[in-house]
Amino acid sequence: MEIKLSDKKIATRESYGNALAELGAQYPDLLVLDADLAGATKTSTFKKAFPDRHIDCGIAEANMTGIAAGLATTGKIPFISSFAMFAAGRNFEQVRNSIGYPHLNVKIGATHAGITVGEDGATHQCLEDLALMRTIPGMTVIVPSDDIEAKAAVKAALDYEGPVYLRFGRAAVPVFNDYEGYKFEIGKAQVLKEGTDVSLIANGVLVAEALIAAEKLEADGISCEVINMATIKPLDAEAVIKTASKTKKVVTLEEHSIIGGLGGAVAEVLAENCPTKMKRIGINDQFGQSADAKTLMKHYKLDSEGIYSTIKEWMS
Amino acid sequence: MNNNELKLTAANIRKGIVTAVHSAKSGHPGGSLSAADMYTFLYFEQMKNIDPSNPQKEDRDRFVLSKGHTAPGLYSTLAHRGYFPVEELTTLRKLGSRLQGHPCMNETPGVDMSSGSLGQGLSVAVGMALSAKLSNKDYRVYSLLGDGEIQEGQIWEAAMFAGANKLSNLTVIVDNNGLQIDGRVADVCSVYPIADKFQAFNFNTVEIDGHDFDQIRAAFKAAEAETEKPTAIIMKTLKGKGVSFMEDQAGWHGKAPNDEEFEQAIKELDAAIAEIGG
Questions:
Q1: For the whole model, what pTM was predicted?
Q2: Which residues of A touch B62 (CB under 8 A)?
Q3: Between chains, do A66 and B114 touch, taking CB under 8 Å as contact?
Q4: What is the pLDDT of residues B112-135, one digit of tens each?
Q5: Cβ distance B96 to B204 under 8 Å?
Q6: Of all residues in chain B, what percent are helix, strand and coil, respectively (each to 5)?
Q7: What domains appear along chain A, each with residue ranges and CATH number?
């Protein structure tokens, strides 16, 4: 199996809106709630197709979260949409107490996550959402890496009974999960490339960058195993242990703080099961800043070049 | 139920509240007692299609206790209504009990929503009311709020949405006992005028004495007759109502009576029951 990054680029928020619109007919209980960001979260696509099933709550995310909980108690399947900063950040306690504690069937579609938000800057670049959501008992946390996975994740979330946090990005990312045999399953890692010297465990926009970086490292004689860990919770611990036991070196890659997200989750599994040398690539406990997404990815060394140099240095 | 029967039921519910909190050695008697008459009217008279043998009945009226700390009031009411044995009230707040310190919908039969973090319950009630409208169902949704609780901003987000969306099947009840933990609501951070605020958020409002069953009955009639707006019933109550030494004392917001105080409370409530003719 060889993974190819397509020239076709689609932002996963776009995929989110499209998936909702495509699934609307099949799931009559599906409702979509927005807080004045339907245009940006791309749920406007759903709104156009199912105007009676789209509810704009105005700029009031906490209330939107509670309304979704109430709808879920009556058998509806609400998706609440906002930027990750508000969906997970502002809303943390509403999500914990009104959705998590009663384990209600609410899906949280969080777009504009991470630094690829770009020019809006630090106030809108959520780098803490995965850490927050991961600590809520019974919460499923998914970070799709491309258009295909984002759509599959929305469908899987709909078929799953319980709260799910889905993280989508603003910037367009290459499509690559169109390979033969691709199947999204909540809690299952995908080995995209086998290798023996180091394991690159990534999710979201960093998966494509990790694949490019791996190619460069291979050229330098470093054999990389690349794993797409789309589900952070429940984490595929078996896959983590398996690859760590094989390569003895693990790098995590995410567009999130290195604290509490994928890096944290993988470190927890490794520390308890098979202590392994590890490097966390992400945002190093700092706030982002304004610039276009590409410039920021380069600045924070999250593009393939930056990843390549960080791993190269770490390996030597 | 006639008023006498309602009064008798309310007195027994008050006994259950005091018994549960005494047994737990912690909990919130003050706001449970102030709302006891309202709880009684809701569950014994007002709410339609509720069935203790089938708590999840699809088209039942629903209740969200937004001021979730007064769970002892809700639990005592549900027990007396037949959702679970009255004896179970003494398990309140104990390890493994179905009666958690704050309501848990997955534990307690008859509890329609988990609540307790102030400000959140009304949004959930709004979601339930919205669901009924979207599905053309005619069940109604009730939510009980504390007067201190309406200091929370989320209450007004929810009120704005309910008013804007004309959720006439939603009735909000504000238990205006005038006290919160740190003192008088008027002093801590005044919420007054309450009715004017809800009116400004496009609510129909009714102001009543929350211990007068005729006024409670009339308020719900007014809510049912309103077809364009949600209704807010602002009820003046006495915190700790029915137990003399707890009445109008902020100190009894979240404190359990000791054995001596418990005996005194039960004696007073038994005397009230005898006077009603129970």
A1: 0.97
A2: 73
A3: no
A4: 999 999 999 999 999 999 999 999
A5: no
A6: 50, 10, 40
A7: 9-174 (3.40.50.970), 190-315 (3.40.50.920)
Per residue in B229-244, pLDDT tens? 999 999 999 999 999 9
Dihedrals φ, ψ of A309, to 5°?
Answer: -65, -40
Q: Which helix (H) or strand (E) holds A140?
A: strand A140-142
Q: Does B273 touch chain A (CB under 8 A)?
A: no
Token digits for A47?
Answer: 């709104």
Residue in B141, B152, B161 to test binding to A, most A beta-carbons within 10 Å: B161
CA distance A181 to A188: 14
| Residues 6+ positions from A44 with CB-CB distance below 8 Å | A17, A38
Q: How far apart are CA A111 and CA A94, in angstroms?
A: 18
In the annotation, is A61 catalytic?
A: yes
Name which of A205, A125, A168 is nearest A14 in CA terms.
A168
SS3 B117: coil
Out of A14, A61, A209, A255, the active site residue is A61
Residue B26 is predicted with a pLDDT of 97
* Nearest Cβ partner for B130 among A60, A67, A102: A67
DSSP string, B71-116: HHHHHHHHHHHTSS-GGGGGGTTSTT-SS-SS--TTTSTT--S---
End-to-end CA distance of chain A: 29
First to last CA, chain B: 14
Q: Could you give the C-alpha distances from B77 to A60, A158, A225, B242, in angstroms and in order?
A: 34, 37, 61, 16
Do you know the residue count of chain A? 316
Of A66, A97, A101, the CB nearest to B127: A66
Mutate which: A63, A64, A96, A101, vs B, most B CBs within 10 A: A63
Residue A143, pLDDT above cutoff 80: yes
Q: How does residue B43 score in pLDDT terms, banded at 50, 70 and 90?
A: very high
Q: Where are the domains of chain B?
A: 3-276
pLDDT of the residue at B277: 86
- The partner residue sitting opposite A70, judged by closest CB among B119, B131, B160, is B131
What CATH fold (topology level) applies to the domain B3-276?
Rossmann fold (3.40.50)
Window 139-158 of B: residues touching A by CB (8 A cutoff) are 153-154, 157-158
